[in-house]
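Why does residue order matter? Because the sequence determines the fold. Keep that principle in mind as you read this record.
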Amino acid sequence: MIKISPSILSADILELEEEIRSLDINGADYIHIDIMDGHYVPNITFGPNIVKSIRKITSKILDVHLMIQPVKHYIEEFIDAGSDIITFHPEADENVEEIIKIISDAKIKVGIAIHPKVNISDIDYLFNQVQQIIVMTVIPGFGGQKFMYDQVQKIKDLDEIRKNNNYNYEIAVDGGVNNENAKICKDNGADVLAVGSYLLSQNKNNYNKIINSLK
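Structure:
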């Protein structure tokens, strides 16, 4: 069954603890935390302090997506904060192999994210070193954007590459995911759906129903 990773980017920051507790008990598999620094993307969100605080209130897998530049300088902070998966954009730092090693040595899962403008062939040399690959189906930076259907081919291609090479990464999809495109993602090989505004704009009483319908 596909895993659901609600993105707290769409949450009300004043109700963050309540939101996370609601997601926790209503079937979320991961908690997706978007970290933006105003450099790699034109937005600023959370830092390692938020990850550390969330770690205290949930045992769910913390799926931390770094949209920052540079990356290496901050990796240790996100490791220490309690991340379970750390995903970064390879084009955001020249020390890609070193970053992967630092995360792996900390016994944390390594992920890389593919910007819509980045081709799979540009980063396929990393696939045997990672446990998650996020296909971005929006231009990263802001929640609430429309799903880019032209990125679905990347999901399909990653699934084929995985099968052909016996790689063990999960394929995650992040951006504009809703009930209409979730099945398309799943049918093309996705394992994890990062869901933001489609879920968190709803009444908390509906979280379980929506998460189950996405699954």
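Residues 3-214 form a domain with the TIM Barrel fold (CATH 3.20.20.70).
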